[in-house]
Fold this sequence. Notes:
Layout: H1 5-26, H2 34-39, H3 43-78, H4 82-88, H5 91-112, H6 121-136, H7 138-148, H8 151-167, H9 169-172, H10 177-203, H11 207-227, H12 233-236, H13 240-243, H14 253-262, H15 265-281, H16 286-305, H17 309-328, H18 332-351, H19 355-374, H20 378-397, H21 403-410, H22 420-442, H23 446-456, H24 461-473, H25 494-505
Amino acid sequence: MRVWLTPLVPLAGASLALLLLSWWLDAGPSTPGITYLLTHFDAEHAETALSDVGQAVTAILGVAISVVAIIVELASNRYTHRITELFFRTRVNFVVMGLFVLSGLNSLWVALTWTSGNTPVRATLLTLVLASVSMLLLLPYFAFVFDFVNPMNIVARIRRETMATIAGAPTRITLSRAATLDLQHLASDGTEQLSDVALNAMANHDGAIAMASVNALGELSREYLALKGSLPLDWFQIAEHVAHDPDFVSMSRDVLDQLAQDRSWFEFKVLRQYQTVYQAALGSNREICYLVSIHTRELAERAMDGADPHVVELCVKFFNTYLRSTLNARDVRTAYNVLNQYRLLAEAALRRGAGRYAVEVARHFKYYGQLAFHMDLGFVLETAAYDLSALNELAFDLRAKERHELLRIFLQVDKEGEGASREASLRGVRKAQVRLATYYLVHRDDAAAREVFVDMQHEKPARLASIRDEMLSIATRDFWEVTDRGSNFDYIPPDRKRCLVEFFRWFGDTLAPPRMSLVPHESTEAPEAPEPGDLPDAPTALAPPSAHPTEHSG
């Protein structure tokens, strides 16, 4: 409607009205009707008109081909060479160009049939109608061309064709080995074209197009997972063409065999495209990095829903790869947002009863947080600590069997360091641990809070007192700048602040009391300070403070 009928109907109506107007302006009492004039020709004039029609149609066809070739080539150079291939495979081009060719040829041959004894009226009218339709279609055809090369439409078309190729595998792949090669090649090439569009769009500062390409990869991967169960076994075997693909060529045969065994080569291919786009976007197009991490998380969640653990493990590996690239680029803000998506993945695993993934993610949080700490990117460690705190809170709420292991990993995150930036990072880790302790106390799990206490009991009193006072002084939930998370790490509600005061009382007289203006009014009975003999006997329990070494677990 928008591309064809909207311009075609007004043009056709206007041309018909113009014909009638032209006849009416010269009409008189003895002038024949329009129908009579159109069916009774003067042989000499009609033959000349047919010759002119053929020349006009041919000239218009040449102009159309030139304009279209330039438009398509420019779009192809700007985004992806696949545009040319897609365009010339479209049936519309065959129909429109074929109509021009037929109109030109028909006018030449009909002109030859005019003789003194033969007047091909109907053939001449048909020729004129064909020429008229061809010319009327010219503007709608240009509208189609511009709509086709619109990068958003190109992205959607590549995704649809790639998905259609995969969906046809159950009926075509069993024909021959060559069919397998063709289908895998087309599917693999489709993912590469989408990433090429994203890369070229970023180079040309077309952020919306780059995001649309990443979204298309995400939609493609999710649709593929929904279809994966119906695909034949031959589809999952890595053919030679795929093995020599740039994303697989450097891999050993054992790795390729493992991907084939796990039936995850296509997901690996998509994640490789994510990685390529992510690394190109680091530092300059952070929103693309965030979008890549979001789609990686969603792919892992769909894989968990579909009981596909190999794809979940792949997503975890690629999240780690993203973090490694981010730290190497020293892009703290991107790490801040990618960690958020990584934590959401761990939380999704806990909610689905797959806590083993949450434990694995927590270990990676600890590793990359400490790695960032030693690279003097302390805020990344602080962010990892707060995310681990939130993960522990959810594990506690869900009564997950992995909550003790998650707490143990969390208490090992902090490392001693030197310098002001490292000191600030360690304070952030301790604040996150204190925050978790208050959560336990509000929910009356003194044993878990005592584990945090024992881990912190050998901290410097001055540091503990300043941490307490800083956390008590934060009165607003929202951070004072615009952030993607939107919340203030150090904020805790009043009921947890009361528990915070009691938690720090456990450290005894070594800590100076807080200012009264910072202490919230108590409305409920606060938890009592733990006695060393009251520590639980569970395997995760810690020994009394007097039996502990002088160094904390960090």
